[in-house]
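Running this now, will post back.
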Amino acid sequence: MTFVYILLAIIAYILWRIYRQKEEEKEQIANEKFDTEWEQEKKEEFKYYPHLIGNIDYTWLELFGKLYIEKGIPHLKAAWLIYLKESNNTEMEIDVDFLFNSLWDLSEELLEHLEKYHESSKFEYEIAILTYWQIVAEKTDSLIGKDLETIKKIFQSSPFTDIQKITSWFPKKANHPAKEISFTDEKGSFPRESKGSALIQEKLKALGL
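Update: finished.
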């Protein structure tokens, strides 16, 4: 009898494992279907920002892509105000301000470069820059209290260096120069010094900044 009970237990376990495997397969298929439908829904929702899908979190596309435009808020102005706040953080050394200044000047250069040499739909360049500065701002608090050399090292990593990824999101126009815009100096240090962009500065003036 003991053998029979053991055999029945083994059979019951095997049947339970088969049942669970089938249930897990069903759940996996359902999850994959949900993910696919959700992704398609988001692509349709943000169809005007094709180059940002997959590169910028949908939360930021919701905020900067939809709400900002619905309210008529200029993305460039918002990015500049974030930069201004971070570069004038009195809790950090003035040398850190110079790092932020260089980042902003490079942002201006990048915007002008994208407008001249890369394809995009409306607002995508500025949404990319605004999102970048929003993420940088969230990281800034972690710099407070650290010495300058440590901060310089932190600037050599994400999210600060992520500005270098942005050009890869947008296809090149036929007039694109042989070399892509660089964000490092001859020694490979990031961010390199920059004079910004007169074109973008004029846009900021038009926004009252």
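Residues 58-206 form one domain. More later if anyone needs it.
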